[in-house]
Amino acid sequence: GAPEHLCGVQTGSVGLSASSVWARLFGRHEVCIIMVGLDAAGKTTVLYRLKLGDAVTTVPTIGFNVEKLEYKNILFTVWDLGGQDKSRRIWQHYYQNTDALIFVVDSSDRDRIEEANEELIDLKRKSGRTVKSLSGMKKKLSSLTTKAKFLEEEIKERKAMLDKSQKDFDKVVEEKEAARKEHKKLRTQSRVTSEMPQVVDYVSQKAEEYELEAQKRNWERKVEIAETAAKRVRAALRNGTMLPPGS
Description:
Protein name: ADP-ribosylation factor
Largest sheet: 4 strands, mixed
InterPro entries: P-loop_NTPase, Small_GTP-bd, Small_GTPase_ARF, Small_GTPase_ARF/SAR
Order of helices and strands: EEHEHEEHEHHH
Low-confidence stretches: 8-16
CATH architecture of the domain at 18-108: 3-Layer(aba) Sandwich
Number of helices: 6
Strand order of the largest sheet: 4-5-3-6
Number of strands: 6
Family: Belongs to the small GTPase superfamily. Arf family.
Keywords: Coiled coil, GTP-binding, Magnesium, Metal-binding, Nucleotide-binding
Pfam families: Arf
């Protein structure tokens, strides 16, 4: 059930506590914040990062944690409520007399984004004051899910393209080496032939040499193009600047 006192205000009562009255008379304001979210979303980590200014090792919250944080003349009482299934059933008992509600989401836990959305919808239904902010958060969560799926597919496509470019490059290098060896072989053969070959043989050999030279230049150009393309793809993937067409 709900705690007997929440943030200096007695739950279920219209009266203010003595500490709250004293604070208001002398210019000190108390703000009550409830922090909820799925289990392992990082609520306790956020709470103690705010309290201590540093990350601490935490354990799953059973029930709740509560800390007071002071900033200038404002005293924040922050309730970190457990996010397990059983704990979620009593969240609604803490909403009364609160000034703000924080819903913590682990953006890296894409498998449970939809579960977080469902909890947000339920929270909207039970706490009317949070409707606008929660609607915006739900849209952001849906957008995050869509973007994460898109990026995952895009990474797969870019990796496949890089693998294909690498295979094409390797093939060009192999064919270039084969052409080089064949050219060397023919040149060696041409040196050991008769110094006065018949005219027909001489013309035929020269034609073959010219053709091999042309093939060699053609493959060298292909290798240069493939090397340039591969470098461009690797650099874009490494820097994360390669975008899908039309984006």
